[in-house]
Amino acid sequence: MNNTIKPLLSTNGAQLKEALTLVHSVFQEFEAPDYANEGIERFKQFITFDEITQQLVAKELMIWSHFSDESKITGMIALRLPNHISLLFVDKAYHKQGIARRLVETVATYCQTFHNISELTLNSSPYAIKAYKHLSFSPTDIQQEIDGIIFTPMKKIL
Fold it and tell me: 123 forms bridges with which residues in the sheet?
């Protein structure tokens, strides 16, 4: 595998649509079963092309994508500036190949280099807690639910 990670720019609509299609697909399979309809609909609203594009243009959000040898997006991570991971998804066929780790490392390097940040935060779905712990994130509070979205706040010291 080529393991190419590149920033995804708001000007590349085709790549953003591909990344969001990946997010939707992985969410539906692995995370939606833990959510009520309200949470599923809220998440789908959050990941619309227009919503994400607006955040990219406003420079509130940055996205990096992992590309396979075939130039297919196999993973993506979104960082709500300055240090909160708001999306991290990897194509099912590429799970357990280190893609999520490489994406987190890319974001950590960016945060340390450009924002002098010493920790990353995120809100983990119930499904992803084990994976985030494997990536050295630790819970900072108990599981919560807001607008139907179930999550556990976590952080990683860089």
Answer: 153
Ordered structural domains, the chain, with CATH: 4-157 (3.40.630.30)
pLDDT digits (tens, 9 = 90+) for 24-50: 999 999 999 999 999 999 999 999 999
Q: 71-98 pLDDT, tens per residue?
A: 899 999 999 999 999 999 999 999 999 9
Contact 13, 107 (CB under 8 A): no
Q: Tokens for 41, please give them.
A: 């609909």
SS (HEC) of the chain: CCCEEEEECCCCHHHHHHHHHHHHHHHHHHHHHHCCHHHHHHHHHHCCHHHHHHHHHCCCEEEEEEECCCCCEEEEEEEECCCEEEEEEECHHHCCCCHHHHHHHHHHHHHHHHHCCCEEEEEECCCCHHHHHHCCCEECCCCEEECCEEEEEEEEEC
Q: With CA atoms as reference, report the closest residue to 18 among 135, 39, 26, 41.
A: 26
What residues pair up with 76 in beta bridges, in sequence order?
Answer: 65, 89
pTM over 0.90: yes
Alpha-carbon gap, residue 120 to 93, rounded angstroms: 27
